[in-house]
Amino acid sequence: MTSTFLRKSPNTTSEKVQTVQKGEKVVFEKGQDTNGWHFVSVSDRQVKGWIRKDTIGSASKVETIKQTPSETKLVPTTPAPIAEVSPAVKTLPVPEASPAPVVDEEVIRIETEEVSLNVRVVDGTNRSVKNLNQTHFEIYEDNLLQPVSSLTTVEVPIINALVIDNSRSLRSQLEKVIEAGKILVGKNRPQDESIIVRFVSKDKIEVVQDFTTNKSLLNNALDNLFVEGGQTAIIDAVYLAAKKVEQYQNSQKKDDFKLRALIVVSDGDDRGSTYQEQQLFELLRASNVQVYAVGFVSNLSKEADASGTNRQEKAKDFLTRLSQETGGKVYFPNSIDELPQIATDISGELRTQYLISYVPTNKERDGTFRKIKVLVAEGANKEKRIAITRTGRTSAPK
Question: Per-residue b/e over 277-304, b at no fewer than 16 CB within 10 Å?
């Protein structure tokens, strides 16, 4: 997430005035800094507020020509970005006909990397825990405690993809899968959008209904799913669907945040993908898409291969890692009759999440993987609480 907030007062819980994007021009207002915060203006000095100092990583050095307050011009003297802010500004005398005072200022361009996490919290019986606030959470990145910048429980629109295996291995389950898909679609709120993707082999990965809020179109697409032969390419299907969900209406503006998820229904047994597992997990680590997987693995072989594992174990491991790495959840139903309840559970899980943001203390932009761990304070009677979120992120490259 490459944005931060301008706030009314120097406090992370203060009212948000405006979102400030990476690369946006910010002007320091002199003499009003406080510990950990700058008082600044944006939008050509029309909007003012407080911004955290640790969100400013680098800036463009500028030369300011001052005429009247309404005729300030910025002339770059060196290419952006520059590693540090120069306090020196060159000023020209104000004409005697314009007695307005000269305002001392420094101009930077914001360079921040604020990370946002979708976090589910459950108790010891796996029930969702609600009504928590920022003080209940601790976020660690590579085992170092991070400063939490904001937390919200406001419901945001959901962008999701139903990614459904249409190979012959799911022939007997398809009717119930369609029924469960309709339950998920029925739970959509007015601003939620879904897409239906069917897949078989690497050359049969199809969007049968693109993103829409129209439930009738989505249900019709589900009714038109059909089974056919081919070498199952679940890795390719998840890769392409995750990329499509991540990119759809993704402005990177925090105010436009949408929860993004895949609901994958398959036996998890990949037979013919072009992409490798490593490529898929690299993509997921660099995105903010959760994966909910429903695995029908019972019909897969339990006979050990040369490596000592079997197809059923491999499929379960793959689907489990898909969900754990992204902060989602995996289900292995014993019967297709469990599908309606699973669909209801997934919808509920998506509705009961916390959006938590933090500013990484490690400012290096080296494209490396950073492990993330979220801890939650115990309940009133020492009730155990568990935070579930993605296992890490890939830092932005330079």
Answer: eeebbebbbbbbbbbbbbbbbeebeeee
Distance of CA 366 to the CA centre of its chain: 19
pTM, two decimals, is 0.70
Convert the pLDDT of each residue in 102-156 to its tens digit: 444 445 444 556 888 989 998 888 888 888 999 999 999 999 999 998 888 767 8
Only one residue has tokens 């029924």, namely 179
Are residues 162 and 194 in contact, defined by beta-carbon separation less than 8 angstroms? yes
- Which residue in this structure is represented by tokens 């693109």? 210
Burial grade of 344 (CB within 10 A; 0-12, 13-18, 19 or more): middle
Task: Give the C-alpha separation, 121 to 386, whole Å.
Answer: 5
Helix 277-286 vs helix 234-247: crossing angle, to nearest 10 = 20
With a CB cutoff of 8 Å and minimum separation 6, the contacts of 156 are: 257, 258, 259, 355
Q: What is the pLDDT of residues 54-64, one digit of tens each?
A: 666 543 333 33
What gap in Å lies between CA 341 and CA 355, rounded to an integer? 25
276 three-state secondary structure: coil
Are the C-beta atoms of 241 and 271 separated by less than 8 Å?
no
With beta carbons less than 8 A apart as the criterion, state whether 4 and 55 touch. yes
* Contact between residue 30 and residue 78 where contact means Cβ atoms under 8 Å apart: no
**Fold of the domain spanning 158-324:** Rossmann fold (3.40.50)
CB 62 within 8 A of CB 107: yes
In angstroms, the CA 93 to CA 298 distance is 81
For residue 120, the cross-strand partners are: 388
Task: Confirm if 164 and 200 have CB atoms less than 8 A apart.
Answer: no
Domain boundaries, given as residue ranges, for the chain? 3-109, 158-324
User: Degrees (nearest 5) of the Cα angle 273, 289, 355?
Assistant: 165
In degrees to the nearest 10, what's the CA dihedral of 128, 134, 140, 146? 160
